[in-house]
Amino acid sequence: MKYESVAEVRSEKRPEVTFVVARASFGRRLELARQVRELAVRGEFLAASKEAADQMESRLLNGEIERLYLRHGLREVRGLEIDGAPATPESLVESGPEELVAEAVRAVAREYGVTEEERKN
User: Fold this and answer.
1) Nearest to residue 22, comparing CAs of 100, 112, 101?
2) What DSSP assignment string belongs to 53-112?
């Protein structure tokens, strides 16, 4: 049996861009869940608040969770240059187009079996 530990996912918005995503494994899924758990619980608590500051904090925590998904699962970005240099997962997050960042987050979440609703909560 031959097993590839990464999957290539072509961007829907920019077909010339390909995300190389780590395939889910027991260990990877467990580690990601461990890292996300605390942030997700706190984010849900804050999202239920009517205070503007709590709502903002909840959105920030959701952004941090998305960043964790990318750090954990996005291995490579192909077909994209940012400021004249080949894109990396880090440069995509820091300086890349938001539509591609969102697409990369969805690609990682799909690979790890996380639904859109679960990812947003």
Assistant:
1) 112
2) HHHHHHHHHHHHHHHHHHHHHEEEEES-EETTEE--HHHHHHHS-HHHHHHHHHHHHHHT
Residue 8, classed as helix, strand or coil, is strand
**Residue 115 above 70 pLDDT?**
no
Does residue 24 lie within any of the structural domains? Answer: yes
Tell me how many domains the chain contains: 1
- 115 in a domain, yes or no? yes
Residue 15's domain comprises: 6-120
| pLDDT (tens digit per residue) in 46-60 | 888 888 887 888 888
